[in-house]
Amino acid sequence: MDGESLLITAAVVTDKDCLDRKALAQLLEETEGQIEKVCADGAYDTTGCYKAIKQRGALGVIPPKSNAVIGGRKWFEDRDDHLRKIEEIGLKGWKKQSQYHRRSLVENAFYRLKTIFTEKLRSRTEERQTTEALIRCAVMNRLTGLGMPDSYVVD
Fold first, then answer.
1. Where are the domains of the chain?
2. 3-state secondary structure of 143
3. pTM flag (> 0.85)
4. Read out DSSP for 15-80?
């Protein structure tokens, strides 16, 4: 999902046992155009994720695991930079400086998608499930394109 426009840029249907981070490389391959930054939670702090992100020429903004150390390996250059910055200004400061919290807008968009359409797919075959999921994404993009709702704090 594009963090600025909140439009879904790629979708992959996986089985229930597939970890999200395993689908990242395929999602990045399916995303057209340039990717500047990939924000993800700590579960994506893996060599495979950083490698897929780097191969797309993007910056990986993923909070490192609490026991992470600077490794100096090719795919972990961004991660090593994050660790140095976290050591300098703290995790909270790093999240603010790296705009990591924009990820919550994307999480909220997926919450809206699941609220509108439910989490379950109705189709029984894999091919039809993929079609159903892609239709949901297209409709969600259309709704987002019409405008985002205004929200207000109620006392």
1. 20-146
2. helix
3. no
4. -TT--HHHHHHHHHHH--S---EEE--GGG-SHHHHHHHHHTT-EEE-PPPTT------GGGHHHH
